[in-house]
Predict the structure.
Amino acid sequence: MWRTEAVVQAVLLSVVPFVLIGPLDLMDVPWWAWVLWAAFLAAYVVVVPSWRYLVHRWEVTDTAVYTQTGWWARERRIAPMSRIQTVDHVEGALARLFGLATVTVTTASAAGALGIAGLDKDVARRLVDELTMKADAVEGDAT
Amino acid sequence: MTELARDAEWQRLDPRMLLVHPIREVLRFLPVIVVVVLGSTAAGGEQWQLIGVGIPVALGLMRYLTTSFRISGGRIELRRGLLNRHVLSTPVDRVRTVDLTSSPIHRLLGLTKVQIGTGTASSSDEDRVDLDGLPLDRARALRAELLETSTADDELASAEATDTEVLAFDPAWLRYAPLTGSGVVIGAAALGAASQLLQSVGFWERFDLDNLDVPGVSLGVLVPLLVLAGLVVVSLLSVGGYAVSNWGFRLTRNRAAATWHLTRGLFTTRETTVDDERVAGVNLSEPLGLRLAGGARLSAIVTGLSSSQRGSATLVPPAPRAVVERVAVEVLDTSVPVAAPLVGHGPRAARRRWTRALLPVLGVAAAFVLVVVSGGPTWLLLGLLALPLAAFLARDRTRSLGHALLAGHLVARSGSLVRRRRILDVDHVIGWNLRATWLQRRAGLTTLVATTAGGNQAVVVLDVPEDEAVRVAHRALPQLVEQFRS
């Protein structure tokens, strides 16, 4: 899924310079700049998705949720079960093509949302149920 | 009969708002009205003038007739709107803060606007619980009872106790006003407006350096003089701004009801009451100017209040550091996190500060030198002055970097232009984010973020050594991090 997203991003990124430079004479930009740009995009498409995939981990225990995401900037997030406010199950257009889903766990803090992307749909469904049950079992108003 | 009992039935707002609304609507539509009046006088149509004033008055009347509220069954309900009927309902025990704001018109009529803060994430005006226009005594009673209900489990709450004054405004603090960022912004904005005004009357077109025939004063004297005058004007304006918003600042604490109570304002008075349980921590910030003058300011991190409602969270306006620290100690109920020295972040974090401050500046400086060498004007070399400035910044940023875990509070300090010391009660930490870019990982550093439900939603500990970050997180919430250590 990330690879497809990266391809889409790359296509967008290769369109942008045309739009920006379009009004100008195309010959103004030296050919090697285009080559560099293309090489950069190709590398982005090839490397970054697998990088993301390797970094992305998640774990759910009885008392907390833990995720690790990112590629250049790697972020690990921990949220205790008692502070979970909502559990979202999102299937984007691309994700549905692959039968995948994203589970997002939000807490009372705007800085504390945990996303687990690219889960198999059934796994995601079961995870949502599990999280909802566990979060429900804990007392308190989660602030 | 208590205020809550009275409000169990649907209540209108105070009828005196019939005076306030039209005046305010007329003021808001003033440009339109002026145009209409001028236009109709020219065209000779008297009826247009009446309509121009009539519409705002009708709007005000309509708003009064369609707005009503009640508090019953543990819920606050607010009904408003004629075409779009809007019913807002919120549980009483979710009330975090109660603000009373009175504009000069309100004060004249003895009214006030009650804003009930429920910690909603929605920023839309429609979703706020505002009761605009209640008599002052009713509003105060309502506030007391609302906050009492929301902390009902507190045994002490029933006992009526007197407020102890923690802080009272001192006019001497006005001297800090020009040193804060906002003061300067206010002043600059006023200067900009004045310049626009001058432009619109054609001042700058007629303004010409050669025409300045001030006898016996050369340009070399005049320019510094003008700059000085500008500074004085900006300072005066910022002092004015400070006085308008903070005059009569008073912070009191009611131990029995466990609330903090804050009053301020010269023309528009504001009263805020914050439930003690909701105070997650404090944020002691020192902008560079203020820090040099030995001042600081303090705001509270209040659960359910986001940073956009910062006005409600101010605890101390710019004031001497000693005063600020005293209040911080009072709020936290412990002096350890405020005064104790912090743990530095080590040489690798320091090196990161230096490279981050110097590299861009070095690049720019090199570009300047290149330009000068290739025949540019020599005064560009002044750009090199940025280097020592950057070095100073890096040094200062390194020095202010620090963190600690003291007496159940997480303390983090960083920044140079605005140095902030954030103190957060560990009980209010919702979760941990550990964030590291590739460069940070190479240096073995990580940025530890404690998320919380108030203020900026997070307390950031910048560039801590990796193992130290995990150790701090672990010590703060032992049972949480343990299971993921590997």
Notes: The first strand of chain A starts at residue 57 and ends at 60. The beta strands of chain A are 57-60, 64-69, 74-80, 84-90, 100-107, 114-120.
